Amino acid sequence: MNAADVIANEKLSDLKSVTAVGIDIGSRQAKAVLVNDRAVHTAITASGIDSQETADRLLARLLRLSGVDRSDLAFIVGTGYGRIALDYDDIRTEVVTEISCHAMGAHFLNAGTRTIIDIGGQDSKAIRVDPDNGRVREFVMNDKCAAGTGRFLEKIAELLDYRLDELGDRALEAEAAADISSQCVVFAESEVISLKVRGVQREAIAAGIHYASARRVRNLVRRVGLDPEIVFSGGVSNNKGMKRALEDVIGAPISATKLDTTYAGALGAAVIAQRFYEGSAL
């Protein structure tokens, strides 16, 4: 796709002519973005056991979609849980933390980004971003508890007999959210089972889970300080029920972007890869 169709207008001139790739190997999904000053191409797949094999599969897909020759790739940056396993003998490669990559990616999708809420498969983060350059000012992470993460929502969807991809939409259909008081995975699951036994509508339970998860994320955001504009990234960012719950609980809108923010980390990695190639990096 044309770079102008997805990149913030203010950042188009910051893209370099060299072709670079960012690969974001998450706990459940792996994403990749190929970028130069003219085009942006994306690919996504399930994260496999072998991170290198997953990355190779994504890279092959990007080259096929873009028509770019492998020999024309200037640089690759790997990020995410599987970043340390990436290695290419024929292409210069570096690894960068997913926090820096999500910040840069969000910055190129919305140049005014100041706060990022990143909810992935196994953790959630709140990140404050410098809107002048896309660098991280401060962040906090919750990787000790799975509440509100993709894996937690997947479990809740199973308990409610929903597919994961419809859980958020069903939550939006609720007339009122069920009261889910616990923000602990184990106790929240027990509450869901109890509510089902009592005959509470599934939609109401789904809504209650999203609001309970949003309250947990709000605690992270408060620690870094809420500073609109907000970008919601990570694998859960496509969940409309979670987006609504976050906006209601935090009390501020989440900014729209022209590219699916699931790719924010990979896009940021690709932008950083261009800078590594030119010697400027972060």
Write a brief caption for the model:
The chain is of the alpha/beta class and 282 residues long. It is built from eight helices and nine strands. It comes from Rhodovulum strictum.
What is this structure's SSE topology?
Blueprint: E1 19-25, E2 29-35, E3 40-46, H1 51-66, E4 73-80, E5 93-95, H2 98-109, E6 115-119, E7 124-129, E8 136-142, H3 150-159, H4 164-172, H5 185-197, H6 202-224, E9 230-233, H7 240-250, H8 264-278
Parallel strand pairs: 1-4, 4-5, 6-9
Antiparallel strand pairs: 1-2, 2-3, 6-7, 7-8
Describe this structure in words.
With 282 residues, this protein is an alpha/beta fold. The chain folds into two domains: 1-110 and 257-282, Nucleotidyltransferase, domain 5, CATH 3.30.420.40; 113-256, Nucleotidyltransferase, domain 5 (2-Layer Sandwich). 39% of the residues lie in helices and 19% in strands. It has eight helices and nine strands. It has helices at residues 51-66, 98-109, 150-159, 164-172, 185-197, 202-224, 240-250, 264-278, and strands at residues 19-25, 29-35, 40-46, 73-80, 93-95, 115-119, 124-129, 136-142, 230-233. The strands form two sheets. It has a five-stranded mixed β-sheet with strand order 3-2-1-4-5. Strands 8-7-6-9 form a four-stranded mixed β-sheet. Helix 4 (164-172) crosses helix 6 (202-224) and helix 6 (202-224) crosses helix 7 (240-250). The longest helix has 23 residues, at 202-224. The mean pLDDT is 93.
